[in-house]
Design goal:
The protein has 396 residues and is α/β, with parallel strands linked by helices. The protein is 46% helix and 15% strand. Bound molecules: nicotinamide-adenine-dinucleotide and magnesium ion.
Length: 396
């Protein structure tokens, strides 16, 4: 029997890789809904190709455009609008699994809705978990949902942990998680060299092809910081139980080190279709369209320590996780504002960590008790970051 999938953020990098996996298994998966924020024509084309029952677009104007395009192909696809539409297609009773691949905080509400509806949640949208970790994990447990990490590192860790992992390192003889990082496009660069790097240079990742925001995060190492927080929530561990290892080839996607000296790793091509197919089919394995790894072609694997002086974002994230409460959400929101400003050429690359640090510094301690707390913290941090941005503007 085929399974119904909703793809949140279907027009993005992860979204299109997900559609590619679905395309290879038409008898196994059927598309319930596809969502997109821009590129409406592409979204409609995908909806037609996969006979999607719904699409979700951000505005009434986008809905009119989509309906016009759909009408030309006489499809029965229904167009929904906005956050309400996203939550609806993430939690509909017919849906078996939801690919959470919207970028940033915008993905939180629909991803949480999928968890609350007891779906299999394929989590690419790490920002949602970073912002609302305790609430999100509780929603997964309370509603018997399944959480399959799609981020390649977390997928590798999931594969390297015992199948009956209880959330307690000591019970399984686990010493630590070795979280690998490619080091991004600016690995080995000095601060002086980073002063005038451009958005185009920052998004040119050496190994992975990804959306603009995560590409900049990879260049600042904030991506690894967000992933450290993500791993702490997913696998119920402390930040000091995770060691970040720079591994420029991106062949090992992360590892788990055990007390008997064993280290278990997952290796593969830097192709997100592998973790996507793993999450979709788990516990089975299906063809992902990814070519087999040729170790002779790779020949060597290197490992170094991260450079915390040049790339302060990793420690900013670690501190935010350790301070707890709203700090991870505030860090994430400040980062989103800083990255958007850098991509718009309003601030320099080196201003990104400075701006985030300033926002975190003025943030008061506060616990998270409900979604509203998270959304308010996100809003507060965006306002602060936008106000502080003027200090860093290149045109000031
Ligand atoms: P992307 O920019 O290519 O795609 C983002 C998707 O989200 C698009 O479909 C876009 O239309 C949608 N979107 C953007 N803003 C939105 C909004 N306000 N409301 C609703 N939808 C919105 O990004 P991506 O690279 O595919 O990354 C998606 C998520 O997956 C991110 O959280 C990223 O950190 C994570 N991730 C990506 C990769 C990768 O290889 N690309 C790897 C690991 C994790
Ligand atoms: Mg990753």
């Amino acid at each position: 029997m085929s399974q119904w999938i909703t793809v949140l953020g279907a027009t993005g990098s992860i979204g299109s890789s997900t559609l590619d996996v679905i395309r290879r298994h038409p008898a196994r998966y059927r598309v319930y809904a596809l969502t997109g924020f821009s590129r409406i024509a592409e979204l409609v084309a995908a909806a037609i190709e996969f006979s999607s029952r719904y699409i979700v677009v951000p505005s009434v104007e986008a809905k009119q455009k989509a309906e016009l395009l759909l009408a030309q192909d006489a499809q029965g696809c229904i167009v929904l609008v906005g956050e309400k539409g996203l939550a609806e297609v993430a939690s509909a009773p017919e849906v078996d699994m939801v690919m959470a691949s919207i970028v940033g905080a915008a993905g939180l509400v629909p991803t949480l809705a999928a968890a609350e509806a007891g779906k299999r949640v394929l989590l690419a949208n790490k920002e949602a978990l970073v912002m609302a970790g305790p609430l999100f994990m509780q929603a997964i447990r309370d509603n018997n949902a399944q959480l399959l990490p799609i981020d390649s590192e977390h997928n590798a860790i999931f594969q390297s942990l015992p199948a009956d992992y209880s959330g307690d390192f000591s019970q399984h003889g686990i010493e630590k998680i070795l979280l690998t990082a490619s080091g991004g496009p600016f690995r080995n660069k000095t601060k002086t060299e980073l002063a005038d790097v451009t958005p185009a240079q920052a998004v040119a990742h050496p190994n992975w092809s990804m959306g603009a925001k995560i590409s900049v995060d990879s260049a600042t190492l904030m991506n690894k910081g967000l992933e450290l927080i993500e791993a702490c929530f997913l696998f119920n561990c402390r930040a000091d139980q995770i060691q970040v290892v720079v591994h420029p080839q991106s062949v090992i996607h992360s590892m788990v080190q055990y007390s008997d000296g064993s280290v278990i790793a997952e290796l593969g091509q830097p192709d997100m279709r592998t973790p996507i197919a793993y999450g979709m089919a788990w516990p089975e394995r299906i063809d992902a369209g990814v070519k087999s790894l040729d170790l002779f072609e790779i020949a060597r694997l290197d490992f170094t320590q991260p450079d915390h002086q040049t790339f302060p974002c990793l420690n900013l994230a670690k501190d935010a996780f350790e301070r707890g409460g709203i700090f991870p959400a505030v860090l994430n929101a400040a980062n989103e504002i800083a990255v958007a400003a850098f991509l718009a050429e309003q601030i320099s690359f080196l201003a990104i960590p400075e701006l985030i640090a300033q926002v975190v510094q003025v943030c008061p301690e506060q616990n998270i008790t409900c979604l509203q707390d998270v959304l308010e913290a996100d809003d507060w941090a965006r306002t602060q970051a936008n106000a502080l941005l003027t200090n860093y503007r290149l045109d000031a």
